[in-house]
């Protein structure tokens, strides 16, 4: 009986933590429609030069376009994945596209990065 109680308790904790797992983004509204945002409400972007779940934005690019960081232990689902960057760090991607914020966005709802670099940067949309 004691073993059953321990097992039932362990299973309830596992189910509770799985149920509490939240997606790594939120949804915000901008003049251009709904966008994905980070936890602080800052707009997320995708980059045309990224390919097949791999980020092409490193070095100075990543300074201007901070990545949406993931932890190695993060679990992906619902269109989200965790990719490994060239430096070994982890980054969230949505539908295979790595996600970034833009250093020049000052507040939630800013979308100053949309269309940057001859149209290579885009709003990440749900």
UniProtKB/TrEMBL annotation:
GO biological process, one term: alkane catabolic process
Keyword Cell cycle: no
Coiled coil regions, renumbered to chain: none
Record's signal peptide: 1-21
Keyword tags: Signal
InterPro entries: Lipoprotein_repeat (IPR005297), UCP029720 (IPR014558)
Protein name, as recorded: Lipoprotein with Yx(FWY)xxD motif
Biological source species: Bradyrhizobium ivorense
């Amino acid at each position: 009986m004691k073993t059953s109680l321990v097992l039932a308790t362990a299973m309830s904790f596992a189910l509770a933590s799985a149920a509490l797992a939240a997606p790594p983004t939120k949804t915000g509204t901008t003049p251009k429609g709904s966008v994905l945002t980070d936890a602080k409400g800052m707009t997320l972007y995708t980059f045309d030069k990224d390919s097949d779940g791999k980020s092409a934005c490193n070095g100075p690019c990543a300074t201007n376009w901070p990545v949406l960081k993931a932890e190695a232990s993060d679990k992906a689902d619902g269109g989200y994945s965790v990719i490994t960057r060239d430096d070994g760090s982890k980054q969230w991607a949505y539908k295979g596209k790595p996600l970034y914020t833009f250093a020049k966005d000052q507040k939630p709802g800013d979308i100053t990065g949309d269309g940057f670099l001859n149209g290579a940067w885009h709003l990440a949309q749900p």
